[in-house]
Each structure stands twice: as structure tokens, then as C-alpha cells.
Protein: TROVE domain-containing protein
Organism: Glycomyces luteolus
Amino acid sequence: MAKFNKATARPALESPVRSGADAKGRTYEGAPGYSRDTRSELFLLAVTNMVGEQTFYEAADARDDRYRALVRTAAVDDPAWTARFLAWLRNGANLRSAALVGALEAAKALAEKGIPGGRQIVDSVLQRPDEPGEALAYWASAYGRAVPKPVKRGIADAAARLYTERAALKYDTAAKGYRFGDVLNLVHAAPRDERQGDLFGHLLDRRYGRVETVPERLTTIRANQALRARATEDPRVVLDPDRLREAGMSWEDALSLVGSKVPKARLWEALIPSMGYMAQLRNLRNFDEAEVADWAAELVAARLADPGEVAKSRQLPMRFLSAYRAAPSLRWSYALEQALDASLANVPGLPGRTLILVDTSGSMRSGFSRDGSLMRWDAATVFGLALARRCAAADVVSFSDRTKTFRQRPGESLLRAVERWKSDGYFIGSGTSTESAVRKHYQDHDRVVILTDEQAHFGGGRDVTAAVPGDRMVYTWNLAGYRHGHAPSGAGTRHTFGGLTDAAFAMIGLLESGRNADWPF
């Protein structure tokens, strides 16, 4: 009888999120807890961290302190890895605050040790024109006015790259504690050319009350001023999309400028061609309430559904669920469904039978942000049902301290399935009996996928996956980033991923094909 050459034989596989083989801690609910190495703990925390937001088990200050300590340790231990990670966190995972804080803390730690690279890290994560000011505001609140040279130079590099006339019109507002002029005054950014030199001078003059005339080269700012002056006499001038574009007029400014002086539908129809993707996504309800014309709605829907636009926008998949719930009209539903599908392009097709366990315990009800519009269990449900649609055969189970099997309907859209999950009571609440759910529902499946915060109750086993044979893959999708995990990870058939994007799905595809999975950056 063959001892090794069996149908179930798998190559020895590795994935990047690594824990110890033995549980040396406890989850918050008392199950054996597996500690991870610094990079793994940092990664799982960062990809689920909105900074300054309290979670079910961890106060905001404690969570932020843990994040800062992990970033500083990783930066000194492995500057190159930390630089790649933080750049990806901002540009791939599209998490602004976590990337910004991480970059500043990494640069601080490197500067204190005399290690180069902080300047480049800071520059790499500042990708929107308001972020140099955001960086200075964070630094001042955390460490005071004295800014080390690598941080200052990184912010200066970003300001020179990001500051344009249109950026100044959109982001340089009196509501900001650090105006563009303040940033330039503090970091001494060097302009790229004469036109940007005129802009920098204008920004400094405007900040310190010295503006009399706008330099001739700043044609967009001059056009903006002319349009504002004209709009006081004839508000209908803002209904010309070409003039709006020429003047760099944002949709927020146009609404503020003319208010109810022109029909709201006409105003939105003029603004829509120049609005950004996210601006259109967040204003679907406003479009409906204003009763914009069908031709304008068709423009918006076509853009929302375009896979290229979805990829370029880097919207988190949960944004589309939020927009679907907020928009009263069904005319957006199909476009949002297509957009959500496009944002989940990395979901692999999996052969055989898959058990998908979605944690809907009380701790998964904590929100990602203060407005509480989306919960961690919403993300778990979206990712779980998206995966189920691509599996040859999948059993989908909601679990807490009891379980409830979700019956899939052929041809049902993902957004409708998510809403049926909600309306039919699949968000259970209460405790996290992960081990019990695995033991109850595992029936010789080829793999198990658990979407959870990993804070399991103790069920008597060494880890929550004990009921699954060692030759079957178990993937844990972590949606909270707490310190201890519910099972070992990183080798063999036990692997953990995390985050709010579809990036981790690519790792499942690699492991299923018998290849090691590496960091997504």
C-alpha cells in the first residue's frame, strides 16, 4: 500500500501570514490563541485598520498604539519590506489613514536609528493633494512642531508632485488647519517649473493675506475667479460643462455657489461629466432626488459598471454595497452589481466542494468607521457569497453560537443575495463558536474558508480547525486584525489572509495550484 503517493497528496506550501505552531496566548473569548510574527501581525492589523476607530475588543487608542509599535519595529528590522508594504497599503489596498500614519511612524523610527529611506516612504504614501497637510497635522498632534528632515523632505516631494491649480481650488480651503501655504512654508518644497513657482507664490500670498492679483500663468485659477464673479449676476453660467471644466470648479463648489438659484436636475446634469468616479458613486441618491434626466443617469451607470473605471477608482468592494443600500432607485442596481463583480476580479474558481463559514457573532457587528453604515459582518458576507458563486459546489453557513445554512439561488445577483442574507435573519449575533460550526458542517469538503475576526470561544480542541483532516486546506479570512489567531497559519494546509479588498483571493488561487503565496506587494 502506498504511503506517500496518494490522491490527496499535496506539496508543502507556505503563505506569508505566519504564526507559531503552538498556541501561547488566548483569543479575547478564551480559545487557544496563536501569536504571529511582527510582519504578519502588522499586515493583518493594517489592512483592517481605519485608525482612530474603536473595535469590539480593542479601544481605539490601544489599537493605534499597537499599530504604531508594530510599524516602528518592522521598519527598523526590515526597511525595504516596510517601504513596499506601506506603498501598497496606500496604492493597492487604498487605505489612506493607515498608510499615512504607518509611513510617518516608520520614518521616525528610521531617523532615530540613522537608517535611510524615510523620505521615500513618506513620499510614496501621499497620493492626494490634501495629504501633505494631513501628514503635518498628524505629526504636530503626535510629536509637536519639530519635524525631522526625512519626514519634511518626503512631504516636500509629495507637495511638489501633487500641488496644481485644480488641486488648490478643490482642497486648499479655510476648513483645513494646515493650508497649502502652511505646508510650503514649513517644508520648503521646490517648484518643478515657472508655472508651479507662480502657483506656490500665489498659495503663500493667499494664505497670509497678500493676494491682490493672480499671476497670468495661473489660467485655471483666473477662470475660476471669473466664473464665480459671473455667477453672482447669472447663476445659469454654471450649467455650461465646458466652463466648469475650464475653471476647475468642483461639484461641491458649484452646488455651494448657486444653491437653489438653478434647477437642481439641470445643475447635476452639467456637473456629471466632470465628476470623479467616487463623487458619482456617493451621489446616486442626490441624482434620484433631483430627478436627473435618463441620459445623465445612463452616463453615470455606464461609468460605474466599466471594469477599467472600477480598477482605476480603487474603490473597496464594500463601497458598492453601501451605495446600493443608499440609492432609492433600481436604475443603479445592475450597474452597481457589475461594479461589485469587477472589484472582486481576483475571486478564484474552485473545483470540488467548499465549506464557507461566515462569522456573524456579536463582535463582527462592529463598524469599520464612526458612521456605522457597514459592519465587519457585511464584509464577511460579501466576500463569502462572492466566493460561493465561483465554486463548483459550495455550502455557505452563517455561524455564531448557533448556525444557519444559506440557500443559494441560481442566477441571483450578489447584491440581492447579500440583502436576502440580511432580511432573512442570517446575521445572528451572540458568541463565536467557530470550532463547533466547523465540526458540525464539515462533511468531507475539499476545503474550508472561514471569514471571521478569529475571536473564538474555547471548544475543547487545540485549534478551531481540528475537525478538518490535515490534508484538507483551511483558509481563514481575518477581518479585524486582533493580535491572536484561532489556528496556526503559514504552512501546510492552514493559511490566514486578511483585508477589505479582493487581493487575498489571489493567494488562494496560488495555493490551490500548488504554489507558495507571497505578500501582495
